Amino acid sequence: MSETPRSRDSGGDTGTGLPQRRTGPAFAHTPHRSDSRPPHTPRGARQPGPGGRPGTIPPVPGRPATSSFPLRSVLLLAGALLGLALATWQVLASGPLLGPDERISSALVRTLPDAVTERLADLGNVPVAVPVLVLAAAYALRRGNRSGAVAAASAIALVPALVVPLKAWTARPGPLEPWAAGYFPSGHTATAAVAYGAAALLLRPYARRPWPVPAALALTAATAAGLVLRGFHWPLDVLASLLLCVPLLYAVELAVVRGLRRSGPPPRRRRPGRPPPRAGRAPAPPDR
Fold this sequence. Notes:
Helices cover 56% and strands 0% of the residues. It is mainly alpha-helical.
């Protein structure tokens, strides 16, 4: 009987050597997947991703792709800007919205003592609101969120740059001072909204409880109420300032999130009263 090549290779070996790779017809056949895709796709044959780069992993089926600028944010910003444009147009053209605005102001002015409403309106003063933002920005900068701190400082600096030209353009008189002008929009409301709102956005990732945002909303609402009740501003002045601050605060929020991604998320703190997790016990030796 003639000796085959396979018997010659394994004749003197009893299995002590390393296995050899065999290349034959049986091993040349590569099984195909049920979805007609090859098991190994070369990098050059992969479909390019959104950026046109080769080798991008395709999206997971059934999972929608997330966008960095969702539709809800677009609608919020568009609504705020359209509302601000509508209020400005009504003031410039003496539109029909000024009638209800003046009647609401007449019904609310001085319904509370001036000593109370003036203290509430003072919450929007620069010496009161801006130091709060400075402390929050310093804390966020200390925690490594540099982009959030810079965005908050830029937002509060843009408040007079946006409010002062609108005041000079509209030249609206005040509720109790019809001979004066420059009441639309409210600068105190814009200062309070940006200072307290940006401070809340900076402190929210590091707070144990979700108190920064409700506190900022309460301080801003108190400022707006004090301005209207004291007769320093019309209600439409306050509303226009709030709409003006929406894009500024949204930009601060994006910068805070970007800063958290760069510096890393804050460490999760253990709830008070909850004991720390215990280490697992070593398994007992088996009985012999």
